[in-house]
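If you are new to this repository, start here. Below is one unmodified record pulled from the training split, so you can see the exact layout before writing a loader.
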Amino acid sequence: MQLGDTFERYSVLNKLGQGGGSAVYRVRHTTLGTEHALKVLGTPHPEERARLLREGQIQASLSHPNLVPVTDVLEQEGQLALLMEYVPGPTLAQLLKQARLDPAELQRILLQVLAGLAHAHAHGLIHRDVKPRNLLLVDGAWKLADFGLAHVLSEQADTRIIGTPRYMAPEHFAGAWRDHGPWTDLYSLGCLSWHMVCGVPPFSAAKTPGTLREACL
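And here is the target side for that same chain:
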């Protein structure tokens, strides 16, 4: 989609990012003038549609100031999309590229992320993809976004190795879902903390095999 295109009642303002088969756009309601983020699925594949719908259901079930909410599911000409709160950012990833964070700011970020995760965990959900790019700043508050890899603890999980290797807990690599729980997110948060303190992630390899080798040294 391009500037000026419409998706149902929303006009596209600009593209915010792309990844994992979906693109995210900043959009404006054509009548109300309110701005939102729209995550549009790029494929009609039934499995991907089901995964996006599940992501929307998970995020919509949560209500917390440190989590980005999903407010609606939209469809146009067979193309599925999630409507979310628009958070202008920046992301934590962008800030970490600019400068090292001072201890007070680091503590504030961690406490807010922990609060959001605690709410998700209390509702039986683990995020599985806690990383700098998924943390957004708005009006002084840090919000955790993208529940595309989230897992409901009461449901059976698959054994695929999914996530961002530099921040993934060891059980991710092993596919040992019986060992997954809130501690899985806390491990990722530990890797995130390392990155904030040291300026680089704890593991340098960008792909799974290399990170696994480093983690086992």
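Two things worth knowing about this chain: The helical segments are 46-60, 92-98, 103-122, 170-174, 182-198, 208-216. The mean pLDDT is 85.
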